[in-house]
Amino acid sequence: MTGADDTSGALDLGTVLLEFRRRAGLGGLETARRAGVSQSKISKLENGLLRASPEDVRSLCDVYGVPADEREDLIGLASELKAASRLSRVVMTRGAARLQHHIGQLESKATLLRSYQPAMVPGLLQTRAYARLVFGGGLSDEERDAAVDARSIRSNALDDETKEFRLVVTEGALRWQAGNPQVMVDQLDAIITASRRPNVHLGVIPWTTPVEVFCTHAFHLYDSAAVLIGTEIASAVLDSTDDVNVYDELFDRLDLVSSTGDEARRELLRIRSDYQLLGR
């Protein structure tokens, strides 16, 4: 079973579970209460955004009163999907604009978005001037403009206060001068402004902070359902529970050593001041 088949299978299973819930005459909230899970999880299972485990299916079948023969078929399908996810769980996306649209879809469905960046400003916080430099290499003007437009649209997600954003960036990423000092001054101003949003938790890891955790690549978590990892030529979306758990734990360790709140803003202002001096 390919990664695409796996996703399709999760959606098919979710559709069946939705039909059984409707037959039982239950709403999502009541189903969640009886199953001992969140309403959000029920919704994600039914929409194929989260793969139902055999245990999830067994619990919901109990709630819905599904007949024994159909129950075993559904549990069997969940077991097959779980086994297949271990074999094929990576979806590669190429093309700058296409990738931005793909990421935007993941972001629109998630309520908790976490991002770690050791090399550049997190995409959601990038100014257009900074983003144009990021996408400048190897792209035509048309392709670059399309990618920048798509990234700018993504940043609108910050306006949705039902979503929580936890972003961690290293000082090294902020010291990587994109274009010229003024671009970086404007970029740091944008980051400081975003950090004051009630739904944005920004962490900065100063170079002076001693650490015992090492992660050389960026990654982005969407709830606890998927993680996106970028390479120079493509980006991979991993959605196996084991893989996501690794990055859940890694993000927590990175978040723990970061400076946040007013302390983070002091670090940002310090870096901004250095760029102002450099630009004189």
From TrEMBL:
Species for this entry: Kribbella antibiotica
Q: InterPro entries recorded for this chain?
A: Cro/C1-type_HTH, DUF5753, Lambda_DNA-bd_dom_sf
Molecular function via GO: DNA binding
Q: Would you tell me the protein name for this molecule?
A: XRE family transcriptional regulator
Q: Which Gene3D superfamilies match?
A: lambda repressor-like DNA-binding domains
Q: Where is the HTH cro/C1-type domain?
A: 17-71
Can you tell which superkingdom this protein's organism belongs to? Bacteria
CDD domains (alphabetical): HTH_XRE (cd00093)
